[in-house]
Amino acid sequence: MSGRGGAGGRGQALVETAVTLPIMIVLFLGFLAAGVAAQGYVDLETAVALAAAANATAYADDRADADRFATSTFEATVGHDSLLRSQGLACSGDYGAGGTVTCQGSAALEFSRTPLAVVVPVDPTLTAQASAVRSPYRSARP
Amino acid sequence: MVEFAIVVFAFLLVMFATMLAAFHSIQRATAETAAATGVQVAASGAPGRVDQPDLAGAFAPTRDLLRSVMFATAIVQVPPGRPCPPLGGIAQDTLEVCAYPDGELVAETVRGHPNLLLPAFVADRLPFSIDVTVEMHAVSYQP
Asked: Which of A68, A80, A103 to mutate: most B Cβ within 10 Å?
């Protein structure tokens, strides 16, 4: 028979630590991953919002140029986030003066490039959407 | 008693770290919003020269948004057209705002080390710097 400070007690403490420590580490990394995901989502939201705004600044009824403006804005902004990998942007809507264009962009959040891959073994795909209104006075390409 | 002291210390440490991380998240998200606001101004036409980006105009709206969460932090404008220096070249408690052309796009960077309201010997060792860059296609005004 052993008391609180005996071999049995030390063994119990060891088992408790062995059970608790991995849970604490996984919890800590999980919170960290949630923070990184939130940050990635904010970056993606910003990129899509700017892309929609860029789309709306192009000449009215010039879909090719408007989409090019939006895509280059999206790709460049996403490219500055080291953990986001662009998976494309698509815009649709009314490209005429006063029309509303909606863009949807997606990107993979590359946990696999970080130690957080231990708790998040996949690279989740984030999606964001934003709309912009072209000025009713925007002219067509001369 | 010793166990209790250790637990209380650990609890306070974790709580403090959590609050600091949350504060940094707010600062970074605000920097992202501020940069996005500034770059939209920068991508627009300059006063009197509508076919040129308004790089100088990006700073004021960016600074105004940053000020709300950057306590005791100097917000410095880098001369328009020049990219920001690397993080290592920016002083503590300083954020630099840079707007510069990037081909057909205009970029704005907010980079630096915001004041975390901590003693310098602690703040210097924390990895809570800000480095946000956004870009936008320059607005194509008709001639």
From this structure: A80
How big is the A-B interface in CB pairs under 8 Å? 62
Mark out the alpha helices in chain A (DSSP H runs). Answer: 7-57, 63-79
B49: Cβ contacts below 8 Å, ≥ 6 apart: none
Task: Report pLDDT digits (tens) over B61-97.
Answer: 999 999 999 999 999 999 999 999 999 899 989 999 9
Residue A118 CA to residue A67 CA, distance in Å, equals 38
B107 in A contact zone (CB under 8 Å): yes
In the block, tokens 């194509």 appear at B140
Enter the ipTM.
0.88
Give the end-to-end CA distance of chain A in Å, rounded to a whole number: 96
pTM of the predicted model as reported, rounded to 2 decimal places: 0.88
- C-alpha atoms less than 13 angstroms from C-alpha of B22 in its C-beta half-sphere: 6
